[in-house]
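so ive been stuck on this for like two days lol. basically i have the seq below and the ligand is magnesium ion, smiles is in there too. i just want the complex predicted, nothing fancy, no docking runs or whatever. if the output looks off dont worry ill sanity check it later, just need somthing to start from for the group meeting slides
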Amino acid sequence: MADVIGRVGDNWGVTALGDTTTERPPEGFRSGFACFIGRPNVGKSTLMNALVGTKVAITSSRPQTTRRAIRGIVHRPDAQLIVVDTPGLHKPRTLLGERLDSLVRSTLTEVDAIGFCVPADQTVGPGDRFIARELAGVKGTPIVAIVTKTDTTPPEQVAEQLLAVGRLGEFADIVPCSARDGFQVGLVGDLLISHLPEGMPLYPEGDLTDEPEQTLVAELIREAALEGVRDELPHSIAVVVDEMAPREGREDLMDVYAHLFVERPSQKAIVIGTKGARLRDVGTRARQQIEALLGTKVFLDLRIKVLKDWQRDPKQLRRLGFYD
Ligand SMILES: Nc1nc2c(ncn2[C@@H]2O[C@H](COP(=O)(O)OP(=O)(O)OP(=O)(O)O)[C@@H](O)[C@H]2O)c(=O)[nH]1
Ligand SMILES: [Mg+2]
């Protein structure tokens, strides 16, 4: 699991700046939105976190970790770039998959620039071509092709990948980078910023995301639960924080009540583990991350429930916050 998520406090607030239309941006200041798109597991969220400089989105080695469009805010002296991380785009097999794909498609139409991520360590394949075709249909938005995970392959393979990606479509730029060792992460930011319009900052100085705290906490629990589970199980896990409040008379202690949902009783048994050992372990790791996020001690009450086939059930999807 990646380390600490960064700082919290008032700076995580949702407030976008008020009416700034009467103010002029500093000379040459640029601001706007760029989204990351790509197959599941290509490193989109890790790259967003590297650009923002803190952990805004959870990441994992399991495909389809990201399930929402998550905003991370990059502050530069001459620009403010809002990166919108999206779920991996793929041929959907469930209603959840369909909802996530339509979320990605609608995000594409709302941004000033698109970062198309393809990993250096896998041959360009049908999944990448499928996305390239989608992108060909988005007219007028500059696309920066990003070859991710360059630390995993020798330079010759990276060079070949740059050529292969170049054949996928029309791109404003093609750039290799590694979020793991920081190689050219700043350059990815520069290129995306170069495609933003001139304008005022859209978020107050210091804000790193507009994700509500409760959502960040639920995601940290899901991240802890994803570690060590395989096959279909990662897809079946959802987490909802029901309540979060400081303990009465104890400003240094936050009570967090959360539910972890799975789709079948057999999955529940796996997540709980022998004599509850696995669930306890998930709770401990999640609690440590939440404490780092909130800067207080945390009491985490984590319960597990079966929500039968929720990925295919419109009613349950709504309950879990995935709307049409
Ligand atoms: N070696 C290396 N691994 C990376 C790099 N970037 C991401 N990873 C790993 O790749 C895996 C997937 O990363 P994510 O950032 O969750 O990928 P994603 O594209 O957001 O995945 P989805 O949300 O499922 O679409 C994780 O195990 C990361 O640690 C990188 O630059 N180098
Ligand atoms: Mg992701």
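The domain at 30-194 is CATH 3.40.50.300 (Rossmann fold). Residues 38, 40-46, 59-61, 63-66, 87-88, 148-149, 151-152, 178-180 surround guanosine-5'-triphosphate (ligand 1) (CB under 6 Å).
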